[in-house]
Structure formats: structure tokens, C-alpha cells
Specification:
single chain; 335 residues; alpha/beta; 3 domains; 4-stranded mixed sheet; globular; WH-like_DNA-bd_sf; WH_DNA-bd_sf
Amino acid sequence: MLRVRFTADDLLRVTFAREPAPLMELGLALAAMQRIGLPPVFGRWQQSLRRTLPRGARPLLELVPPSGRGPLFMDPLSRGLDDGLDAVLSTPGGYVRSELDRVCSAGRRPVTPWLRALADQDRDAWRLLADSLRTAYDSVLGESWGTIRSAFDAERAWRTRLLAEEGIRATLAGLAPGPGWRGTTLEFDWPEEALLELDGRGLVLLPTTVWSGWPMLALRPGLPSVLVYPALSPLPLLGEVPRAEPLAALLGSTRAAALGLLTRQRTTTDLAAELSIAKSSASEHAKALRAARLITTERDGKAVWHSCTPLGLDLLAGTGGPGPAPRAQAVGGRR
């Protein structure tokens, strides 16, 4: 049982990550690859990972145990792979050593020559770590990252609406299996007994598409803790969801694709770039969706931000989401 004790300040400081963390997702994927007894939905995906993981990525298995509880310096919240790698490579030496000691002393990973070299800040060891992380990301997540990002956006939109309708306690209790709340302590099913105090720094919610079962809690010194929990739709299913045509028939293919993108807040410029249309056309589509009360629009300085309304989310949920965004033959061309 995992018990997470909240203060009033913690409950006021619960936030949702703005985007998925590439290296966090990669670490959990490598852990899931090694686990026994995964749900059947992960079976074929797990077998494929075991078969295709490149030799250049395999050193990471010395760091990542099947439990997913590897060294925290490998799992930064970041705004992309390069940003994440920069964070890993700039980790203070003392924190690296303490995390490696924690992982190895708990019996999760044996002490190998490479891990000793990492703890001693050996340049060649750290160069191997960076190369292995990049190779593993390209092999395990690279082709799927757009799908993972879309699933994250949908999950975030749904949980945000749940928060508005049912409140913070119900939202947090529904993230993973467990008894729920006992006073200000939230309990989740977990393979060990643990009590964790958030100490008023708050909590960041981060869904993952490659992990199942119990949640993972990362305590970060001086920063809000991160609760990583399984998203509603796991990665192996995301590519199999049939694309719905009714929404495109109702709104038009470009407008339906725009609505699907707006499960995450985007600017008019973002919409134009992702739909490969002119900014003026993107503005027209947003105006039509706003008139139908499917999106809302806010101005922040020169930027105009759009996002789905609850009605828009209901429409997307009822049709399974829009099909893939059409590609323009020429910028500004009509659909």
C-alpha cells in the first residue's frame, strides 16, 4: 500500500504536467519490457521491444529495474528529448551518487563497473549514457511520440474536466486502483508498504501510456513531487482505435481535425502549422468552432489561444475523435 499524505497547501498546489516527459516515458517503457505478468494488451508490444531493442540501448537495463524505480536523475520533466538529455547530463554529482546508492542498496540493480564509473563522473561513462538514451528513445518511442502526445492531451483534457465537475479528491482517487482517501492521506495499491509526505510542495500529475498497475511517485528535492499514473488508453491500443468519419462529415475534415488538436490549448499559429494551412484559414476555422460553442478563445498579448469546451470534448468522445489531419496541397488551399 502506498500512502501519500497531503497538507492543505499540497491540495492547493496540485497541477497537471503540460506535456509528456520523454525520458520518464522511456524509463517506464524499459521497465515494462522486463516485467512479468503484464496485462495481455501489452504482450505483443513487450515481445517486440525485447526483440528489437538495439545493442546500443541495452546498457540502460543496468539502471532501470522491472519495478520502474530506477535513479530519478534519469527521469526529468522536460520539454522534449534534447531538454531532457541536458537535464540528465547536468545532474549534480552528489545527487547522482545518492540515487545510484539507493537503487543498488535496495537490491534493484547490481553494482556494475559502468555504474561505478557514472558515480565517479567518468566522461566516457556519461557519454555512453547519453548515447544509450538517444538510441533507446529513437527505437522505443520515436515513431510513436506523436500518438503518445495526442493520448496525453486527451487524458489531460478529460481529467481537467473531471476536476471541474467532481473536485480534487475524486480526481486524485480515480487515478489508480486503491482504497482512496483516509482523511488527508490518499492510498493506492502498491507492491510495498510506504508512507510519503508531500510537505506542502504540491504534486504534478503525469499520465503514462506505457505503464500499468500501480502509480509511481517521484519525490524531487525542493520541488513538487510527481505522481506518474497509467493513462486510460495504453500505447498498444492507441494505434488500433478506428478513426471516426461522422465528425468529419459533420464539421468538415479540417475543422474536425482542428477540434481534435484543441484538446490541448493552442494558438492560431499552432493550428495553422499543424494543419498545414494559412493562419487566416486557421482563424476562420476557429471562429466557426467558437460560434458552435465547441471551443473557447482567450487573448494573451498578441497571442490568441484556443481550447475545447466541455461540449467539444463530449463531441470528440462520442465519435472516438477526428481522423488524421488532412495535408494541404498548397498553403491556404480550401478543403
